[in-house]
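INPUT
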Amino acid sequence: MGSQGYRVAILGATGAVGTELLELLAERKFPLSELRLLASSRSAGQTLAFQGDNLTIQAVGHDSFAGIDLVLASAGGSISQNWLPVAVQAGAVCVDNSSAFRMAPDVPLVVPEVNPADLDHHQGIIANPNCTTILMTVALWPLHQVQPIQRIIAATYQSASGAGARAMAEVKAQAQAILNNKTPPTESFPYPLAFNLFLHNTPINAQGYCQEEMKMVNETRKIFHAPGLRISATCVRVPVLRAHSEALNLEFEQPFPVTQARELIAQAPGVKLVENWENNYFPMPIDATGQDDVLVGRIRQDISHPNGLELWLCGDQIRKGAALNAVQIAEALIERGLVKTP
Amino acid sequence: MGSQGYRVAILGATGAVGTELLELLAERKFPLSELRLLASSRSAGQTLAFQGDNLTIQAVGHDSFAGIDLVLASAGGSISQNWLPVAVQAGAVCVDNSSAFRMAPDVPLVVPEVNPADLDHHQGIIANPNCTTILMTVALWPLHQVQPIQRIIAATYQSASGAGARAMAEVKAQAQAILNNKTPPTESFPYPLAFNLFLHNTPINAQGYCQEEMKMVNETRKIFHAPGLRISATCVRVPVLRAHSEALNLEFEQPFPVTQARELIAQAPGVKLVENWENNYFPMPIDATGQDDVLVGRIRQDISHPNGLELWLCGDQIRKGAALNAVQIAEALIERGLVKTP
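OUTPUT
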């Protein structure tokens, strides 16, 4: 840590996203003069390694944000709701990974490759979108800019990591139990996920859509500034560890040439075209794991609609789907002069 | 086996579908006076248990079909192409599980709950549709009869069993290897499937659709007698053992009331409505495994289209997706007097 960097606090450093935040700050040489790890009193006193130091986790409290320039929060909605206003009051800018503030009109919801200018109007809190939304918007933005998308029908294949580090361990434990002909443990999930799958088990609204699906709908509209964009989604949890996949059917007002779509995706930041048609090789979760880019492929003209395109993507849920996007937001805030200079 | 039953041959009795055929013939008390097991010379001499007897597998040859009334074939396309014409010549009616004859104009492609009358025009061979098609057509037929479906956008979650018994064992072996931090074996599949997934690795056509996807398109049109039905599909292999799932987006000419769709599904043969909205419980592969019915649920108005419905299904790939449908075709043939009486 240098003397010229920013004073950063991570709220919720022990989770899957929190530990990835630490890795990314180091990997991306984020300009830090202080790194303060905050968590509930349950985790306080634990230490986490960071660039050769052992940092001690402090219980979050009313004095925790004194002198902090930037907060990266990844501790869940209610903790963000309790503490981020305190951090803002103390003068910090907060990037929040929870869903608590995402749809608040005065809170920018940002994917840096898509809508970085929304950061300029922040009131202290910037929301990091839901993982499925981030992956989808990064992939579709290059197309949407050329010809606005009219309708999206999404089916997701979501990994265990979206439910946290314990859920990832649980899927492995379940697989081992099933291989041993034993009853798989279920704590994080309501049903066994290993060798199984189920519709995303978030609360369902009156229209029959679950919260996760409505996040894709509402967040994408907000990020694209496209309130009329028609979206339907079916969100499914699958026994994969940490990369999400999405099958996306897109409808435009006019035909969208496939070759143009491929070129746009190949050139866009944050996405990587992965299409080896001869070898039938397209994006897979194991290849997206640990990668910054969202892998996109199998782009094809929808044979059921003249103005349709089908495409497939895989992206690391913990990286671009959460921690990386949050760090990129922090970097964009600095680049745009929106965090007070140290 | 009674003296009054039919003389049945199973071609390809040792595979995942073949062994399920044997179980179903016993379970459903299929009227048999003889059961002849045929396979390649590689499997000849092996025995399989059937209702207390040990039946010896015979190598298929030109005399194999003498005296046989009904052939259930599940040995792959080229074997069916070689031997079913021989069986027909010998006077047998053949139900073929391969894709070899499915799109031939003079071959009925039948899901007994949907188009049993197509059997009446058979020329000796009846094709059993592809697993994903069977599951989809059984579920959608009750709706399609009330108001013709205009367009289907499907995303599948296909189990390992579709690639055979060895593939199922391979997924387990892969999972064990990964849990032990070892390199997973890949023989049946080009990539590891355990804790991963990939687009269905069948050959891709000039439009970018794989064979499995085009089966859903072309077979559904044939079964529904709806050559103009617009269908697009994305077929994905997931690390599940033996039940397929499908996320289906449907478009009608007029709005289709959700309550009516639910009632129709609840009453239709071959499907079972599984919707516990309060407990967020919907069809899952582990619940569909071993069941005859295709489980359908999460039926909802598509919020992106006034005439759209979304639904979700799971069905046992080896049962209704293959062996059960074949046995049901055989039963329907008998019921309709289309197999010569013993």
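end of record. The mean pLDDT of chain B is 96.
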